[in-house]
Amino acid sequence: MIVDCAVYEDGRRRDGVLRLEDALEAAHERDAFVWIGLYEPSEAELDSVRREFDLHELAVEDAIKAHQRPKLEVYDDTLLLVLKPVRYYDQTDAIETGEILVFVGDGFIVSVRHGEATALAGVRRAVESEPERLRCGPNAVLHSIIDRVVDDYLPVAQELEEDIEELEEAVFSPHPGDKTAERIFKLKREVLEFSRAAIPLAEPLDALTRGDLPQVDGSMASYFRDVRDHLTRVVEQIEGQRELLTNILTANLTQVGVRQNEDMRKISAWVAIVAVPTMIAGIYGMNFDFMPELHSPLGYPAALTAMVIACLLLYRRFRRVGWL
């Protein structure tokens, strides 16, 4: 659906409702531009926008499918930027990704949002409160949208950092739990999903920073460079998290192997202890004529005492070497 359709003149929003069929005419007015915001639009709505601004059919097809990686493409006189906003659910350790496609042309900008992550209503309000920035035209809106998406990456990276720290403590705790490995793999998958949203955005931002695109005013290069710096910090966090999770997984597997060896040593020690009385009792059960219990009343007590002493000596030995 079309969330908002407004014309901005000399840095301020013009009063009244702008009809879509009047958007192109308003976009060509002096010191004015049009910003149209759509949320999960239908094919008919996108087609009406395409016809109004003569958007390339391939770019509109990307906006309908909404399964693109972050990229920057130029279709004739129109710039298409694809962003992947994310948000993190701490209760389930899950990342939800959305998609924002931004069309920028002469006197207009069209934003198409899919998913719940990074709503643009707040971006519009923030931009409208700064008339000086709005005088820069669609480029100011483009920067504000990218800046908000990248800023929303930062709390996600922090939440992942905290969960990884908790996981690290759990791995090295005396009782790590049976689902530790499962949680490691789940977090690795979420970090991978996060990296697919953030890391490919570096290339489009580099292109915007260079200022060699005709649709982007070169005076905005410093603003895009600032966003690029923020993205670099996020990318570094992601790479560190991926490496740390790999190390945690290796440590967890090592811990599991150590615990299994400890269990095997304990089992082997108890088997050795039990084997001694079993062996002595087995020999006495043969009832040969030279067995002491046949000729002396102290035979059985002596055998039982030997069993107890042998078991105690073995137990003490295994305790000393750490097998029990």
* Derived structural class: alpha+beta
Q: CATH class of the largest domain, anyone?
A: Alpha Beta
Determine the fraction of residues in helical runs and give it as a percent range: 55-70%
Give the distance, in angstroms, between the N- and C-terminal Cα atoms: 69 Å
Overall average pLDDT:
80
For the sheet with most strands, the description reads: 7 strands, mixed
CATH topology of the largest domain: Beta Polymerase, domain 2
Proportion of residues in extended strands: 15-25%
Task: Give a written overview of the molecule.
- Strand 4 and strand 5 form a beta hairpin.
- This protein starts with a strand and ends with a helix.
- The protein is rod-shaped and about 125 Å long.
- Helices cover 57% and strands 16% of the residues.
- It is of the alpha+beta class and 324 residues long.
- It has 10 helices and 9 strands.
- It has a 7-stranded mixed beta sheet with strand order 2-1-3-9-8-5-4, with helices on both faces. It has a two-stranded antiparallel sheet with strand order 6-7.
Q: What is shown here, in short?
A:
By secondary structure, this protein is an alpha+beta fold. The chain has ten helices and nine strands.
Summary keywords:
single chain; 324 residues; alpha+beta; Beta Polymerase, domain 2; Methane Monooxygenase Hydroxylase, Chain G, domain 1; 2 domains; 7-stranded mixed β-sheet; two-stranded antiparallel sheet; rod-shaped
